[in-house]
Each structure stands twice: as structure tokens, then as C-alpha cells.
Design goal:
Distance between the termini: 27 Å
Radius of gyration: 27 Å
Number of strands: 24
Helix content: 25-40%
Strand order of the largest sheet: 1-2-6-3-7-22
Largest sheet: 6 strands, mixed
Length: 584
């Protein structure tokens, strides 16, 4: 713990004191010895938070007196509970807060995340999350943790759990920290560590592996203890801070409108569900469904007939496995002929995979059928480079074969040539670039039977300027052309579930969070746009602040999702610094 306190990010030179004072406050790095002394002085066990911070602050001040920064000792000693922190001392107070939240609560953040990961809070088809037993268990646990930390807890009928740190008497502004307690399922994924146990792995146990570590239980726990650290100081805040934990972010998004109809609208909303330094723009979210019907005439006979297509784990998950069952079109082949066909298909699959790395295709015999399996790497569908889509490989390879163009074969051909390994929507006619929000992305999410027809589901993340009517027009042109060529009717359903979201980069909230990022990391940052949709967009002017360093390598939704202990502590440090700047 002490190594983290001293080693991560006390790099920034603080601003000079209040107007008119020329005294320069030392950097947090210069305060390393006092802060380390404060960490050592923390009483063990579940002691009173106010007493713990008082011990931390006294030890830091005492050490400063004996060192070369005697003038700072009095300033530290003056940061007493119940007294507003002067503007000129806000940077010094931030140094104390950032060190304290890690030293006091770093181990508890890890333990509580492991506990929270044990609640299997994923959507069960046909049931609402709100009353699900795992959600109830998690809610009761959160209420207990909030009470133990001296924070208030309110349950909005299971849809949202709200934990509040009140501002000073008369403080009217409200700052909302938005996280979510539901997670994606793990169906169709192969984990090396149990996804709901939160085990620590690695040579030093540095990785906490579990579904929801990064998306979004890790940030939720870090924010909980950021509130606890601020409460421990006793410093009056100019705003009330609410930690809003939603329970339908990975499914319906119904819970936030329900919450906003019953709670006052916050003045500022900072989500903890995307990436640093500040996520100020999000693409829209859409789902395209293609289904193949029966041709009016006899289908084109091919050498192979597709019996079944299957694969996918979730609309927002990059599929890591897909399979097709194929039958020789000629019935009654002798066993040796079937074996020869399997051998030839295996050769062709290996050659195709070699030309399209890192594709992995395997061919095997299953009774009188041929089984083709594609394996990829799971990830978040909003960032195609965060994984590798097995369904794209499967359909792209199938499209190179001579298939019977009945509904399953026709769907494989259409999807393999119109989506396949592409991630930009080019072949669908949907490619689009936005200078502020980025490029459209497309990810093949499911191959399945739907209402008696073979169907493919594609998740798109669209920038501005591509309305639903235009998408429907372009797709209708392509499916009509395919039907004319093959005789197989294709139906298309377009669902745009959210519009692009953009908060001005030069606004106060974005500028303030960029200043926090620079304060903590010592590096300048620029606001970014992401393909992933977060519920911050449901709040006026809402932005996201972390937890990922890069969406290109985002781990949420992927197999073996994890955060390192240092990353988790970094999120707590950045979050407490952000609250302090925005709510003090």
C-alpha cells in the first residue's frame, strides 16, 4: 500500500496560494515524506473515519515540521474538519486526499470489489433485473457498506441504488457520479479464471479477474471510497455528491428515466464508464437484423448445404466463437467421399485463415455432417480492435464456398460479403466519418434462428448525419440487389436505440476534469469520443471520466476482464480529486 501512495502520481506543481500571496506551495512529490508518515499513522482495523484522517493529517504535519518544508506544516494543520478549505489551499488538500484514499482504503477497495464481483448481476431473459435475487443481494450489501461508512443509501425500486454525501448546510448544487452494477453475461466465452470469483492472478496477484471489474463495478467501488475519504476529512463541500448505481445499463436503460422522474436532476453528471482523460462524445447505438426467407423457386444447388449457423454472446460483445454445420449437397455419399470432403474443406479453411490472421478455423466430422468452427477473441463491440470477431471469419470463409442458396446458405453468403471481417460498414453502404465523433463501426453479434428463419444481428455505432431513414434506404438497396441475383428474399430491421451525444470540449465540466487529469498524472490530455454508449448521455451535459486508459484495449465485455490493483487505486485517486475540484 505504501508503495502505491508514494509511487504513482504525486507529480504536479500546485498553484500558488490565494490571490495576493506569492508563497509557492510545494509539489505533491515534495510532500512524499509527510504523506508516507500519514499513511503509517493510520490506525488499523475498522476505526472511525474522522479519527483516521485526523491521525493522518497530524502525522503529515509533524513530519513536515521536521523536514525542509516547515512552512507547509501549519497549512496542513489548519485543514481542520468543519472549516471550509480556502481556495489557495485546495491543491494542498487534494494532495492529502489523494494519498489518504489509497492509504486508508486501498485494501478495502480491492476486497469489496471482489465481493461485488461475486454477485451475478447479469440479465436473465424474460425477467426484470430489479427483483432478481442476485441484484437484491448486491443492493443489500451496498446498503450495508454505505451505512458502515456513514453515507446515506436510497433504493429506487431496485432500478437505481443511490449513495449520498451531503454538502454543507445550504449547498444546493448536486454532482452525480454515475456507475452501474449490472454486467454482461459470459455465455459463449471461455475464461481462464472463474468470472464471478474476483480472483487475483499474476506473479504478484496484481490482476483482479472477474466480470465487471472494469465495466463497471471497479469504478463503483472506487467512487464509494472516494466519498468515504471526503466524509472523513470533515471539510464542508459546496455541493451534494450522489453515487448513482444503475442496474439496467447493459440491457434496457429503462432505469435512468425512472430515476430522473423521481429524483432531482443533478447540476453536473460524471459517468465512470468509458475512458480517460475525459469522454465528451459518444456515437449512437443501433441494431441491424437480417433474416433470410424461402426462395420462390428452387434454390441454386451448391456442393455444400448450410444446415445451421450459430454464435454470439451479446449485442455489445465481440463474438469469440461461431460454428456452422454443413452437409454435402449430394445425398448418399460413401463414408470415404465424406472424409475426402472434410479433408478438402480443412485444407481450404487453413489456407484462408493463413491469409487472414489471426483467424482460427477448424473442420471436423460430425456423423454425416461437417462442422466448421471459428474462434476469435472477445471484446467490446464498440471498439472492434479490442477483440477479434469469430462470426466475421466464419461467414467470410463460408462466402468463398459453393453453397446451396436456401435460406441458411443465402444468409451466410450475404453476411459474409456484406459484413464479414469488415468493421466500418463499407460493404453495407454505411461507412461514415465524423471529425468530432469518429467513424461508424459495425460488429456481427449473432448468428441464430429467429422466428423460424436464419438471422444475423449486427451492432453499429454511428456518428452524426446518418438517420434511420437513410440507413433503411441504403440497406434496402443492397438486399434488393441480393434478392434479384439469388432469388432469396431478405428482410431487414433497423433499430437506432440512441442518438450521438456531444458535450462541448471547451465547457466548464470538461475543462475541470482535464485539469484533474493533469493534476494527478502530470500529463496534458484532450477530450475523446467513444463508440460505446454510456448512460451519461441521458443526463444534460453528461460526460465520462475513466476508468479505461484506452478504449482500443478496453477489457469490459471481454473474456478474462480484469483491472490491476494499481489501476483500481488510480481510479480512486482520480475520482476523489475530481469530486474535490467539482464539489468543493
Amino acid at each position: 500500500m505504501l508503495r502505491t501512495v508514494l509511487g504513482f502520481s504525486f507529480l504536479i506543481l500546485l498553484s500558488v496560494s490565494a490571490a495576493g500571496s506569492a508563497a509557492e506551495v510545494p509539489s505533491c512529490a515534495v510532500l512524499a515524506a509527510p504523506l508516507a508518515a500519514g499513511a503509517r499513522a493510520l490506525p488499523p482495523g475498522e476505526t472511525d473515519g474522522a479519527a483516521a484522517f485526523a491521525a493522518f493529517r497530524r502525522a503529515a504535519a509533524d513530519t513536515a515540521r521536521t523536514g525542509e518544508i516547515v512552512e507547509v506544516a501549519a497549512r496542513i494543520a489548519a485543514l481542520v474538519p468543519g472549516k471550509p478549505v480556502a481556495e489557495g489551499e485546495a491543491g494542498l488538500a487534494s494532495c492529502l486526499l489523494r494519498a489518504y484514499v489509497q492509504a486508508r482504503y486501498g485494501d478495502r477497495i480491492v476486497r469489496d470489489l471482489q465481493t461485488m464481483l461475486s454477485f451475478r448481476t447479469f440479465e436473465v431473459e424474460g425477467k426484470e433485473n430489479w427483483s432478481g435475487p442476485e441484484f437484491v443481494r448486491q443492493r443489500e450489501w451496498l446498503a450495508g457498506r454505505a451505512a458502515a461508512l456513514g453515507l446515506s443509501f436510497k433504493d429506487y425500486d431496485g432500478r437505481v441504488d443511490e449513495i449520498t454525501l451531503p454538502g454543507a448546510p445550504g449547498a444546493k448544487p448536486v454532482l452525480a457520479l454515475l456507475a452501474h452494477g449490472d454486467v454482461q453475461g459470459v455465455e459463449g466465452q471461455t475464461w481462464s479464471s472463474p468470472p464471478f470469483e474476483g480472483r487475483r492472478v499474476g506473479e504478484r496477484g496484481e490482476k483482479i479477474v472477474g466480470r465487471g471489474t472494469e465495466d463497471d463495478k471497479g469504478p463503483a467501488v472506487a467512487a464509494l471510497y472516494a466519498l468515504a475519504a471526503l466524509k472523513d476529512t470533515g471539510w464542508p463541500l459546496g455541493a451534494t455528491v450522489r453515487l448513482v448505481i444503475a442496474n439496467g445499463e447493459e440491457s434496457s436503460w429503462d432505469e435512468i428515466p425512472y430515476y430522473l422522474a423521481r429524483a432531482s436532476l443533478p447540476d453536473m453528471t460524471v459517468g465512470l464508464d468509458a475512458a480517460y482523460p475525459v469522454t465528451h462524445a459518444q456515437k449512437g447505438y443501433g441494431v441491424l437484423t437480417f433474416a433470410a426467407g424461402k426462395p420462390a423457386a428452387a434454390p441454386h444447388p451448391g456442393l455444400l448445404r448450410v444446415v445451421r449457423l450459430a454464435g454470439g454472446s451479446g449485442v455489445s460483445i465481440i463474438a469469440e466463437r461461431g460454428e456452422a454445420l454443413l452437409a454435402p449437397a449430394a445425398a448418399g455419399l460413401k463414408p470415404e467421399a465424406v472424409t475426402a470432403q472434410v479433408t478438402d474443406l480443412a485444407r481450404r479453411a487453413a489456407e484462408w485463415a493463413k491469409r487472414h490472421p489471426p483467424a482460427r478455423l477448424t473442420v471436423s466430422r460430425e456423423d454425416d455432417l461437417v462442422k466448421l468452427v471459428a474462434e476469435g477473441k472477445g471484446g467490446h463491440s464498440s471498439e472492434p480492435r479490442s477483440g477479434h470477431n469469430a462470426l466475421g471469419d466464419l461467414t467470410a470463409f463460408l462466402a468463398t464456398l459453393d453453397l446451396t442458396l436456401d435460406p441458411p446458405g443465402a444468409l451466410a453468403l450475404f453476411v459474409g460479403t456484406s459484413v464479414g471481417t469488415e468493421t466500418d460498414g463499407q460493404a453495407l453502404g454505411l461507412a461514415r466519418h465524423d471529425d468530432e465523433i469518429g467513424d461508424l463501426t459495425a460488429s456481427l453479434a449473432f448468428l441464430k434462428d429467429q422466428d423460424g428463419q436464419p438471422a444475423a444481428v449486427v451492432n453499429i455505432r454511428q456518428p452524426r448525419g446518418l438517420p434511420q431513414a437513410e440507413i433503411e434506404k441504403r440497406l434496402a438497396e443492397r438486399t434488393a440487389l441480393f434478392t434479384r441475383r439469388t432469388g432469396v428474399p431478405l428482410t431487414t430491421k433497423v433499430e437506432l436505440l440512441s442518438e450521438p451525444h456531444l458535450v462541448p470540449a471547451d465547457g466548464k465540466l470538461v475543462s475541470s476534469l482535464l485539469a484533474v487529469w493533469r493534476e494527478v498524472t502530470g500529463t496534458a490530455g484532450r477530450p475523446i469520443a467513444v463508440g460505446g454508449g454510456t448512460e451519461a448521455r441521458l443526463f444534460p451535459g453528461g460526460v465520462d471520466f475513466g476508468p479505461a486508459l484506452s478504449m482500443e484495449h478496453y477489457r469490459g465485455h471481454g473474456t478474462d476482464e480484469y483491472m490491476t490493483v494499481d489501476e483500481l487505486h488510480r481510479v480512486a485517486e482520480l475520482t476523489v480529486a475530481a469530486i474535490w475540484r467539482l464539489a468543493r
